[in-house]
Write a structure and sequence with these properties.
Elements: H1 9-21, H2 24-36, H3 40-64, H4 70-78, H5 80-93, H6 95-114, H7 120-137, H8 139-164, H9 182-196, H10 215-241, H11 243-248, H12 252-258, E1 261-262, E2 266-267, H13 270-299, H14 309-322, H15 329-377
Antiparallel strand pairs: 1-2
Helix pairs in contact: 1-8, 1-10, 1-13, 2-3, 2-9, 2-10, 3-9, 3-10, 3-15, 4-5, 4-15, 5-6, 5-13, 6-7, 6-13, 6-14, 7-13, 7-14, 8-13, 9-15, 12-13
């Protein structure tokens, strides 16, 4: 194991919750409202349920190869060379590409909402330097930092919801299911893929859990907490601004914070939402970059991973610029990304588990045949 750091069940729950919220807290309400209208919250509920339903697949696959990461047991399941090829493709196309999108989301948000005159490349470089420092320190410091930050995240998010609650208009979510169930499901499928199918990357962290028997419980509560935050922010966006306004905005939750007004004294505290988002996106990006670096090192049979952080960081900066030509590109590619995420986050683990089961049965039959043959060849006494 390149990094021998161990993580507790509590730390795993927290990092999963922060990962789930990630950049989704800013952009998901807009997409859901655009397709499902006032029923966006129903789409969110269905997506959470689907994400939790897929969890047993990851648990079964991870428990089948205890002490190994996804990149390592791909070689056991598919063979050395095919396993390495599939592992490298998975790492490049999934966690590394998600890291590029996350970094681009940071740059787009900063250059459109907070620092419009700053070059996006400068923001990417500064943010990624902090991420690289965290990755080089190892998994345990990342988890300890998440454990320290998480109560502040909950406190800030709770204050945000309390401050915006007086502006709720319950009529904004009526009538329920006006367009039927199809728009709800149509909006829920991409939301299920992003971010719920992306939790497949946590298969890379299974060996680091100090209580392997509690990993499933940690993932369940992490997904549930993160999904609940996204459900609440989607509902508040629709209840306060209405489905049409929410759908037209790129960052509806950030604009929602601008509507906070308490006694003509507490107003325009959108910085609160920005801080919440910086917390979650930092840990998501750091975790994705860590998983990518560790996975590449394991697939290439390297004894050290830290020297990969700088070259991969430079590649990530360039990739994040090339992957998205403009701010609205993510909304155009979102349905396509959903298919991509379902393929790598659901179909690939299911295929690996099926192949592992078939090969396991084949090995068991071969062992039984060998034992029977040895018994027949033994002379009678």
């Amino acid at each position: 194991m390149l990094d021998k750091g161990k993580i507790s069940t509590r730390e795993l729950t927290i990092i999963v919750a922060l990962y789930m919220v990630g950049s989704s807290i800013l952009i998901i309400p807009s997409y859901l409202a655009a397709y499902a209208g006032q029923d966006a919250w129903i789409s969110a509920l269905l997506s959470i349920a689907t994400g939790l339903a897929v969890l047993p697949l990851y648990i079964a696959l991870g428990n089948k190869y205890p002490g190994k990461t996804l990149a390592q047991y791909m070689e056991d399941i598919l063979g050395t060379w095919l396993g390495k090829a599939v592992s490298l493709f998975f790492l490049a196309a999934f966690p590394f590409t998600m890291a590029a999108f996350s970094l681009r989301n940071i740059g787009d948000f900063m250059t459109t909402q907070i620092m419009p005159d700053t070059p996006i490349q400068a923001i990417h470089i500064i943010f990624l330097i902090i991420v690289i420092i965290g990755v080089r320190l190892g998994l345990e410091p990342i988890m300890r930092a998440a454990e320290i930050i998480f109560p502040w995240f909950i406190l800030l998010f709770g204050c945000f919801i309390i401050f915006i609650s007086p502006q709720i208009k319950w009529e904004n979510i009526l009538p329920v299911l006006e367009g039927g169930i199809r728009p709800v499901i149509g909006a829920g499928i991409p939301f299920t893929a992003f971010p719920f199918m992306e939790t497949a990357v946590f298969l890379m962290l299974f060996p680091h859990a100090n209580r392997p028997d509690k990993v499933g419980r940690a993932l369940f509560w992490g997904i549930l907490i993160g999904g609940a935050v996204l459900l609440i922010i989607t509902m508040m966006s629709v209840l306060v601004m209405g489905p049409d306004t929410t759908a037209r905005l790129i960052y509806p939750s950030y604009m929602l914070a601008r509507k906070i007004s308490i006694g003509n004294f507490l107003e325009r505290i959108e910085g609160l939402m920005a801080i919440i988002w910086f917390f979650t996106i930092f840990f998501k990006l750091t975790l994705l970059f860590y998983i990518s670096v560790i996975g590449f090192a394991q697939s290439l049979n390297l004894k050290e991973y830290r020297f990969l952080t700088m070259p991969l960081g430079i590649i990530l900066i360039v990739y994040s610029i090339l992957i998205s030509p403009n701010t609205s590109f993510w909304f155009e590619v979102y349905p396509t990304w959903a298919l991509h995420a379902i393929t790598l986050g659901l179909l690939l683990p299911a295929l690996l588990l099926a192949v592992a089961a078939i090969r396991g049965k084949g090995a068991a039959k071969a062992a039984e045949a060998a034992t029977a043959s040895e018994g027949q060849n033994q002379p009678d006494t």
